[in-house]
Amino acid sequence: MGGEKFGFLIWVSSISCLLCLCHGYVPADNYLINYGSPNNVTVTGRVFISDTLASNLLTSTSETLAASNRNSVSDIYQTARIFTGISKYRFSVAPGRHWLRLHFSPFHYQTFQMESAKFSVSSQTHVFLSDFTVKSRVIMKEYYLNVDTDHLELTFTPSGNSFAFVNALEVVSVPDTLFNGDPSFAGSHGSFNELSLQALETVHRLNMGGPRVTPDNDTLSRTWETDSEFLVEKNLVKNVSKIPSVRYKPEFATEETAPKSVYGTCSEMNSGANPASNFNVTWEFEVETGFKYFLRFHFCDIVSKSLNQLYFNLYVDSMMVVRDLDLSSYEINALAVAYVMDFVTVSEKKSDRIRVSIGRSSIHGVYPNGILNGLEIMKMNNSKSQLSTGTFLPGGGLTKKKNVGLIIGATVGSLISLVVIGGFFILFKKRRGGIITQRLGLLCLLMEQLQPQVELLLRV
Ligand SMILES: *[C@@H]1O[C@H](CO)[C@@H](O)[C@H](O)[C@H]1NC(C)=O
Ligand SMILES: *[C@@H]1O[C@H](CO)[C@@H](O)[C@H](O)[C@H]1NC(C)=O
Ligand SMILES: *[C@@H]1O[C@H](CO)[C@@H](O)[C@H](O)[C@H]1NC(C)=O
Ligand SMILES: *[C@@H]1O[C@H](CO)[C@@H](O)[C@H](O)[C@H]1NC(C)=O
Ligand SMILES: *[C@@H]1O[C@H](CO)[C@@H](O)[C@H](O)[C@H]1NC(C)=O
After folding, report:
1. Is the pLDDT score of 109 beyond 80?
2. Which residue ranges traverse the bilayer (predicted)?
């Protein structure tokens, strides 16, 4: 009897140990495709299935599979699929948030010179790439989108008589809670409350003060780049690494928000033990103008010895976004707890730079110090649901020609009305002594004449 109980206990504890070990997020949808290849390939522990297995998802007739024999950074870049006409992929998915990752690495195959290919990629709801050309040796484009139906349809559309290509693709579920809530506007009152409708494109994802983190060290297969190339003055920071001390607390950030390898390293202001030092640490990022951006700051106080020692200011584009930021008060009196803060730029960017700074707090007697552990900058879709400006609209359509006709029609129309009005004025001036009723009658006539033009203008 006692032995049985003991055995049961061992069984229970081993099950809970197993649960502890595999508590990582398991995505409901996990499409990983190695285009152009008859073989599965394994990249950092994940299997990208062969194009042959994925071809049942394709609803087009173009059948060019390209292979190269060059040396490339990863096996998924050795092959590609070429689309010479409009091609659609249909993925059955569980409704919810997903990553869409498109991998490109151009090479020459027969008459196809992929670095000159020009094409668009869109879904039923958003445009991701418009008249896109791959300019670097390898590029991965990552998007976060909410699919509210049971399928995601991706359309590759060649521009003009060019062609499209792709080396590999990922459509993977993301926890719905990864980006939620209403982020504050950076440097202004109020908050953005339409985050759930947004599609986002990852522009920069950085691990401050530490090494590059690769998809195998991230439960959501993300890549976190190093930050030093973005620092305006590199000598103003020092690297700190204390990965084992990072803690996740319920209600705060989780392992899915960012891994310990991100929270456990930071760039710290290098005050050189001088309590009078006063400077800002600034990172500068290139972004595309005409879009709003979502900024997520990852903090974890791995530098303080005790509570309420670290106070600093946080700036975005020279605007104060948090004054006297005190992580130990947010984290309910604890140190080294993973914490995030989200912001959205107030309006579409007019300049092609985003500057992020940390600087000393003006609280009297506080030692000049500040930290940043991680940062994500994501482009938000514009009002036409595009993440890339151009003529392309969601669902694979182009801006309709009819609109051009309408605009021309309206412009010509308003010119005619100007001439008509001018004519009437001349007429009136010549007949100065005319009766008022006559004038009113003419005015009515004029209004009647102008009505269609006004309507056209309103429709444009
Ligand atoms: C490729 O991977 C898929 C999915 O993991 C599997 O079903 C299939 O058997 C694999 N094919 C080969 C040839 O290994
Ligand atoms: C900080 O770490 C990064 C990445 O490991 C490295 O490139 C950089 O030179 C380090 N900076 C300093 C000041 O040590
Ligand atoms: C990544 O994970 C491997 C083990 O999977 C570990 O040895 C390595 O230190 C990790 N790197 C980082 C930066 O966390
Ligand atoms: C830090 O940056 C902010 C915003 O640009 C600026 O107002 C402040 O004067 C800067 N502080 C120092 C010491 O340069
Ligand atoms: C992004 O697209 C959605 C429709 O998918 C739209 O509701 C939303 O307003 C767009 N965002 C912006 C900032 O215009």
Report:
1. yes
2. 404-428
